[in-house]
Amino acid sequence: MNIAVTEKTPATAAANIGATTADTAAANTATKPAGDAFFSIRDIHAYYGESYIVQGVSLEVRKGEILALLGRNGAGKTSTLRAIARLDDPAMTRGEIWLEGQAVHPMKAFEASRAGIQLVPEDRRIIPGMTVEENLILSQVSPGRGWEIEEIYEHFPRLAERRLQEGITLSGGEQQMLAVARALARDIKLLLLDEPYEGLAPVIVQEIERIVQSIKERGITTIIVEQNAVAALRLSDRAVILDSGELVHTGGAAELLENTELREKYLAI
Ligand SMILES: Nc1ncnc2c1ncn2[C@@H]1O[C@H](COP(=O)(O)OP(=O)(O)OP(=O)(O)O)[C@@H](O)[C@H]1O
Ligand SMILES: [Mg+2]
């Protein structure tokens, strides 16, 4: 789907985006929003070149909650996650992102990662030529250490069994587990999962669901993007639906599972 629009970036747009690290502290005290959401995004807009993709998305997530971010192919789900992780593409021109009272919108990707936002992309990015354990150790090297290796193995027994196997030789499901485990090896507050169930058998999907549940019990907050909306809703507390880069629904996950009209209109399930 092509939703390219050549709307010009508003003049005030980039005022607080792309500021330096030094500016971050000032932003924190200056414009901290009211309300007590653990994580919130407010009216974010983002572009790939001239293509206007994320068109004013706002959402809130409470601490320890799992939020499903749903929508058809091309709705802008991955782009929204990338904007939250502060990757350069799509370029966020307007809007605010707040994590535990800290302004994330002025940050670069490495700063957002240090602040505890960990994106597990769809392609999983396992490092070739390294074992499972080396992949995990490498994630611990970055500042802000997360779970210890032994703690990870308790939650991911399959990875423990394969600790000396090269990461890219794992099955698809095991690679997904490794990708999630690597995120946990860093200092994590918000886990962003982009299509974690893609290409996986139902039994493996259930295993990953159990892992995400146990991560939730440890107090970690998650946003999950999934084409398998039923599986994502089963796991989630609340859900939002994106369509053509705009939010069209916010509500409880169980309630959306029962809403045939919304499901047919936006999720094709
Ligand atoms: N690098 C890019 N350059 C230009 N346009 C892009 C780029 N990446 C994505 N788009 C466009 O942005 C829109 C939203 O894409 P996005 O990948 O965010 O959708 P999505 O909801 O994640 O879809 P899917 O369910 O297929 O993963 C689409 O129209 C897509 O073609
Ligand atoms: Mg996507």
Describe the structure.
- It is a single chain.
- This protein has eleven helices and ten strands.
- With about 270 residues, the chain is of the alpha/beta class.
- Helix 4 runs parallel beside helix 7 (about 170-185).
- It is globular.
- The two termini are about 20 Å apart.
- Mean pLDDT is about 90; it is low at about 1-15 and about 20-30.
- Bound molecules: adenosine-5'-triphosphate and magnesium ion.
- The site of magnesium ion has 2 residues, from helix 2.
- Magnesium ion (MG) binds near residues 77 and 78.
Which short descriptors sum up this protein?
6-stranded mixed β-sheet; 11 helices; ABC transporter ATP-binding protein; transport; binds adenosine-5'-triphosphate; ATP binding; 4-stranded antiparallel β-sheet; alpha/beta; 10 strands; 24% strand; Rossmann fold
Query: In DSSP terms, counting alpha (H) and pi (I) runs of 4 or more, how many helices?
Result: 11
**Biggest pleated-sheet summary:** 6 strands, mixed
Separation of termini?
19 Å
- Molecules bound to protein: adenosine-5'-triphosphate, magnesium ion
Going by CATH, what is the homologous superfamily of the domain at 35-116 and 222-268? P-loop containing nucleotide triphosphate hydrolases
Structural class: alpha/beta
CATH top level of the domain at 35-116 and 222-268? Alpha Beta
Mean pLDDT over the full residue set: 88
Write down how many β-strands occur, each being a DSSP E stretch of 2 or more residues.
10
What would the principal axes of the Cα set say about the shape?
A: globular
Indicate the proportion of strand residues. 15-25%
CATH architecture field of the domain at 35-116 and 222-268: 3-Layer(aba) Sandwich
Question: What is the fold named in CATH at topology level of the domain at 35-116 and 222-268?
Answer: Rossmann fold
Order of helices and strands: HEEEHEEHEHHHHEHEHEEHH
**Rg for CA atoms:** 18 Å
Helix content: 25-40%
Would you identify the regions where 5 or more consecutive residues have pLDDT less than 50?
1-16, 18-30
Order of strands in the sheet with the most strands? 6-7-8-3-9-10
